[in-house]
Specification:
12 strands; alpha/beta; three-stranded mixed sheet; single chain; 14 helices
Amino acid sequence: MGFKCGIVGLPNVGKSTLFNALTQTAAAQAANYPFCTIEPNVGDVAVPDPRLEKLAAIARSAEIIPTRITFVDIAGLVRGASKGEGLGNQFLANIREVDAIAHVLRCFEDDDITHVEGKIDPVGDAETVETELMLADLESLERRATPIEKKAKSGDKESKEAFALMSKALVLLRDGKPARLAELSNEERGPYSQLGLMTAKPVLYVCNVEEGAAATGNEYSKAVEEMAKRQGAGWVVISARIEEEVAQLAAEERADFLGSIGLEEPGLNRLIRAGYDLLGLITFFTAGPKEARAWTVTKGSRAPQGAGVIHTDFEKGFIRAETIAYGDYVAGNGEAGARDAGKFRLEGKDYVVQDGDVMHFRFAT
C-alpha cells in the first residue's frame, strides 16, 4: 500500500519539472506556456528507505522490494476553473481521484518564465487554487444535498447521517473554509471521505525555490511555511531544477553533488516523508533469504490489517505476528540474535503495528 499524490498548482510553477525529477522520466513535457500538461501523467517511484537495505544485508536477501508512491502530474489550474475556465473540468475530475494534494508554489523569480498572474506571490497562488476547489466542492455538494435532505426529513436513517456530514462541510465551504477543517469523530472519517470533496484532502505545500535557496529556503517559502502552520498543513522546500539534475546523475555521484550545495539528501526523500506524515502512514518490513520488502500501513493499524496488506488470506486466517523492532533486529544482527536477546515477540490480533517493525505472519489456511 502506498498512496496517490496529485501534483497541482498554477501553470509555470514547476509541476512538470518536479514530476520529471521525481519519477526520473521525461513523461511530462516541461515548457514555458500554460497547459503543456494536457493529460495527467502518472508515475510510480520507489520510496527510499535506508533501513530496507540494512535489513537485506543482514538477512542476505536476494531481492530488495521497496514500497511505492504514485505521483500524478495534473494540468495547471487557472482562476475560474470551477466554472470550466482553462482546463478546469479536467483538472477537477483528475484531482478527485488522488489521496492527497502536493500543491506546488512558485517561490522563485525568473524573468524568462512567465507567471500566469503576472507576479510572484505563492500565498496568493495557494489561495487562488484553494478558492477554485472550494467553489467546485460547494456547487457539487449543494446539488447533491437537496435530495438527501428531503429523504432525511422523511425519516430515512442513512440519509440523516449523510446529510449531517454534508452539513458540516457546507457550513465550512459557505464560510470560505476548506472541508478538511471539519471536526469529525473516528466513525465519521470514512463516510466523510466518501463525499469526494477536493478540499477535504490533506494538502502538502511544495515550495519550489531557486537553486541557491534549496538548503535554506527564501522569503517566499517562509511566507508559505507560516501559512501552512496556520492551516495545520504540511510543507517542504525543494528546488525542482536541482531535483532534475540529481535524477540524471549516477547513484554514486549524487551524494557529492548534494553535499556541494549544502543538502544531505534529495528533495524526493523529504517530500515522501512529509507525505507519509500528512496521511499518517508508517512502514513495516519482512526480511528473509528470498527478499527484504517494505510495506505501508496507516498509523494505528493492527497486526491482522498489516497481514492483509501482504495478502487478504493472511488477514482472514491471522493467528499471530512474529515481531522484532527494527533497532533490535539490527542490534542482534538478525532474527537469531534478537531471539537470544529476548527481543523476539509474539503479538496477537490487538497489536498495533509500529513503524520499522520486522514481521512474519502466521495464519491458518
